[in-house]
Specification:
The structure is a single chain. This protein has 65 residues and is mainly alpha-helical. The protein has one domain: Orthogonal Bundle (434 Repressor (Amino-terminal Domain)), CATH 1.10.260. The protein is built from five helices and no strands. Helix 2 crosses helix 3. The longest helix has 11 residues. The radius of gyration is 10 Å and the shape is globular. It starts with a helix and ends with a helix. Pfam families: HTH_3.
């Protein structure tokens, strides 16, 4: 699984820490870190929740081109 650089970039653009994003979607900071590193494959529901925070689509953040 590839690193999720798009998530990291979106988080930086919104000036959110991993902890702030984790709190917004009700997971641990470690979960966000693991997603960004590519060590964890989030559920579709978690992907949707993360997308809502950034007002982006699943295509924007998670699906391969």
């Amino acid at each position: 699984m590839a690193k999720n650089l798009r998530l990291k970039v979106a988080r930086a653009q919104y000036e959110l820490s991993q902890q702030q994003l984790a709190d917004a979607v009700n997971v641990t900071r470690q979960t966000i870190s693991a997603i960004e590193r590519g060590d964890y494959n989030p559920t579709v529901n978690l992907c949707i929740d993360i997308c809502k925070v950034f007002d982006l689509t699943l295509n924007d953040l998670f699906w391969e081109e």
